[in-house]
Amino acid sequence: MKHIAFTIDEKFVRFCAVTMASILEHNEPSDVMFHVVSDGISQTACDILSQLAARKGAFIAFYTVPAEAMKGYSIRWEGKRLSMVVFYRCILASLLPESVSKVLYLDCDILVLDNIDELWNTDISGKALAAVPDSFIVNPVHCRRLHYDVSFNYFNGGVLLLNLDYWRENHIEEKCRIYYQQYPDRVIYNDQDLLNGLLYDHKLLLDMKWDVQEGAYRIPKGKNVNWKPSYTETILHPSILHYSSRKPWQYHCMHPLRQLFFEYQNLTPWKGENVLNHFIPRLHRFIHLLPYTLHLKKNKYLPIDKLGDAM
Question: Which strands make up the sheet holding 155-163, listed edge to edge?
Fold first, then answer.
């Protein structure tokens, strides 16, 4: 059984459903157990997610985290956009049944576009987690801020294969809480900085295909539109696609694979829903894209269709 965890609040129920739908399209549903951890989503939301799982033959469980469980944590970055649920991944080891020895945590701005057997079967014995580097090029700024050598790299927190047995045996939850309170000058990017700072030498780095983030599709500074990255195959055929910055449900999203989100959303009760169904957001998008259409600004993203032809 593959155990997959999400941490959400009410506003992310729709996006959680889309991620679930993508998983169920590419994996054997009867071998999937979803764990939805929230601050207390509505019964209607629970029913929608339950029906989505049951219709395919998957399993699902819900957990509510009391506010006192987050004592000692606070949002230090993107406070207007993020909620305390970002820290729920730090307490999965005590929240989930002890029979669950490992869990795949996924953000809900993600599409799973491949079978995850290879990822799930990754050997993480003796490690706290496995994760994907935050970019194809190591950013030394993060490592220096968190006081560890750049050779350890810095991982993205959107896809985490967590060794829950290791967390329980080594009291990682309590260590997370202590670290977060002890180093407020180091930890900027909330839980992601926390986990990197604490577990930088207790992790396994995964192939980039398991968390292809938005930055991989952007044209680096100093490069022109004809530049071809060495990781073309990865961005053309991501196993897990992560809309890590602009979200496809936002009117100004320019991600070249934006439309994929709506294809999987059509497998949920939100079929056809799109901010661009409304005139004002559509107008805002037109204005936003106009400088690129008129070539007053250079395109930020790689031309995926041309990269495919060059393969």
Answer: 59-64, 32-38, 2-8, 102-106, 155-163, 129-133, 203-205
- Quick one: 262 exposed, middle or buried, by C-beta within 10 A (0-12, 13-18, 19+)? middle
Query: Would you write out the chain's pLDDT as a tens digit for each of its 311 residues?
Result: 999 999 999 999 999 999 999 999 999 999 999 999 999 999 999 999 999 999 999 999 999 998 888 888 888 766 556 678 889 999 999 999 999 999 999 999 999 999 999 999 999 999 999 999 998 888 899 999 999 999 999 999 999 999 999 999 999 999 999 999 999 889 988 899 999 999 999 999 999 999 999 999 999 888 887 888 889 999 999 999 999 988 999 999 999 999 999 999 999 999 999 999 999 999 999 999 999 999 899 889 999 887 765 43
Do 113 and 22 meet the contact criterion of CB atoms below 8 Å apart? yes
Report yes or no: 138 and 208 within 8 Å, Cβ to Cβ.
no
Task: Tell which residue, 260, 267, 255, has the closest CA to residue 299.
Answer: 255
Q: Are 176 and 162 in contact (CB under 8 A)?
A: no
Q: Distance from CA of residue 167 to its chain's centroid?
A: 21
Q: Which of 121, 120, 199, 197 is nearest to 166 (CA)?
A: 199
Give which of 158, 170, 165 is closest to 131, Cα–Cα: 158
Contact (Cβ atoms closer than 8 angstroms) between residue 116 and residue 20: no
- Rounded CA gap, 12 and 1, in Å? 25
Phi, psi of 32, deg, nearest 5: -120, 130
Write the CA distances from 155 to 61, 136, 194, 214, integer angstroms: 28, 11, 11, 14
